[in-house]
């Protein structure tokens, strides 16, 4: 699932509630990458950027963005971790700065998962940590279930595990909105595109509560302007998911990754989400409980856009988690 900030464009688990001062909003500026590459994958080439030293003693962290159709921009505040390990960001095929053949034949879960290993091989990384956010969490789940030897630690951040659960959560969250907004969303579900402005306003009201509660920071806006206009791919999102976060009509409408939870290494797995996340803490906590030994953290004050709403708290949580995983190596 994409965290669409429309103000910018778009049992054995340990549970923790992570909070910090509300004024903490992440990096003052985003550093330029120390390395960039266009990595060949099935269907084209994907854009990859690296900050930090890939040869450092601590294993690097690669982050998988949301969507389908999102970009690495939503994860830029994770670069704060580059002071102690390399941080790798990339755009999936047909997103952001990657090639955009826009061929639906490429829009398969397994092909997107294969991109992860393509990045690792291209950079010469032998062992790394993997974080997937939202739809990227789906890819991280699938990757982690393969038990690759290179995987040092796995973070499933506000992940899409099963469409049925995601839509169930969305229905509960829509029902919690004020009656006029709730009624408009339900009315709009019956309308075909193009929808009237009232539908966009109602959808934005949902996003403002559960997707991204804070405005984009100055560094985020500046980076968005600098990387050019090919950002979020609406066609990819609509084809694989649907028209909005609470309607799934695409190829992922029957996706169910729950059986893969049993294949994860719990001691190497962290589940994390926001207090107001559209991936509800109750749901994500229940998934974590099904992975013995896994940890679970909730970022206070954050919605789905963890790195945008509460970057300091999210980075601090990851820093501690990564250190514990490094100690197990």
Task: Describe the model.
- The chain has 329 residues and is of the alpha/beta class.
- It has a single domain, classed as Rossmann fold.
- Helix content is 33%, strand content 16%.
- The chain has 10 helices and 9 strands.
- A 9-stranded mixed beta sheet has the order 1-9-8-7-6-4-5-3-2, with helices on both faces.
- Helix 4 (179-188) packs across helix 5.
- The longest helix is centred in the C-terminal third of the chain and has 18 residues, at 311-328.
- The chain is globular.
- The two termini are 31 Å apart.
- Residues 2-14 have low confidence and may be disordered.
Element order, helices and strands? EEEEEHEHEHHHHHEHEHH
Number of helices: 10
Tally of DSSP β-strands: 9
Segments where pLDDT lies below 50 for 5+ residues? 2-14
CATH class: Alpha Beta
Q: Could you give the distance between the termini?
A: 31 Å
Strand coverage percent: 15-25%
Spatial order of the strands forming the largest sheet: 1-9-8-7-6-4-5-3-2
**What is the CATH architecture assignment?**
3-Layer(aba) Sandwich
| CATH homology group | Alpha/Beta hydrolase fold, catalytic domain
- Summed over residues and divided by their number, the pLDDT gives a mean of 91
Tell me the overall shape.
globular
Structural class: alpha/beta
| CATH domain fold name | Rossmann fold
Q: What Rg, in angstroms, do the CA atoms define?
A: 18 Å
The main β sheet shows up as: 9 strands, mixed
- Helix percent reads 25-40%
Count of domain modules? 1
């Amino acid at each position: 699932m994409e965290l669409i900030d429309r103000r910018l464009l778009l049992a054995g688990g340990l549970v923790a509630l992570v909070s910090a001062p509300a004024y903490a909003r992440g990096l003052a500026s985003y550093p330029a990458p120390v390395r960039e590459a266009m990595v060949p994958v099935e269907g084209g080439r994907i854009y990859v950027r690296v900050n930090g030293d890939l040869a450092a003693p601590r294993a690097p962290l690669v982050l998988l963005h949301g969507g389908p159709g999102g970009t690495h921009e939503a994860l830029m505040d994770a670069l704060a971790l580059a002071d102690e390990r390399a941080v790798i960001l990339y755009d999936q095929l047909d997103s952001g700065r990657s090639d955009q053949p826009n061929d639906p034949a490429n829009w398969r879960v397994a092909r997107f998962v294969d991109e992860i290993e393509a990045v690792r091989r291209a950079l010469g990384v032998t062992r790394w940590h993997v974080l997937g956010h939202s739809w990227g969490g789906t890819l991280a789940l699938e990757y982690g279930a393969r038990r690759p030897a290179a995987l040092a630690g796995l973070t499933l951040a506000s992940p899409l595990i099963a469409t049925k659960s995601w839509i169930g959560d969305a229905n509960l969250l829509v029902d919690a909105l004020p009656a006029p907004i709730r009624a408009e969303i339900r009315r709009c579900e019956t309308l075909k595109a193009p929808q009237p402005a009232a539908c966009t306003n109602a959808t934005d009201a949902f996003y403002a509560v559960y997707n991204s509660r804070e405005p984009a920071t100055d560094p985020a806006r500046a980076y968005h302007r600098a990387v050019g206009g090919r950002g979020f791919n609406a066609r990819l999102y609509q084809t694989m998911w649907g028209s909005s976060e609470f309607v799934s009509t695409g190829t992922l409408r029957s996706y169910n990754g729950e059986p893969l939870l049993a294949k994860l290494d719990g001691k190497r797995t962290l589940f994390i989400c926001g207090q107001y996340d559209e991936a509800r803490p109750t749901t994500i906590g229940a998934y974590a409980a099904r992975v013995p030994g896994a940890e679970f953290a909730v970022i206070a004050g954050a919605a789905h856009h963890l790195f945008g709403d509460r970057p300091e708290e999210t980075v601090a949580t990851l820093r501690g988690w990564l250190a514990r995983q490094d100690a197990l190596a």
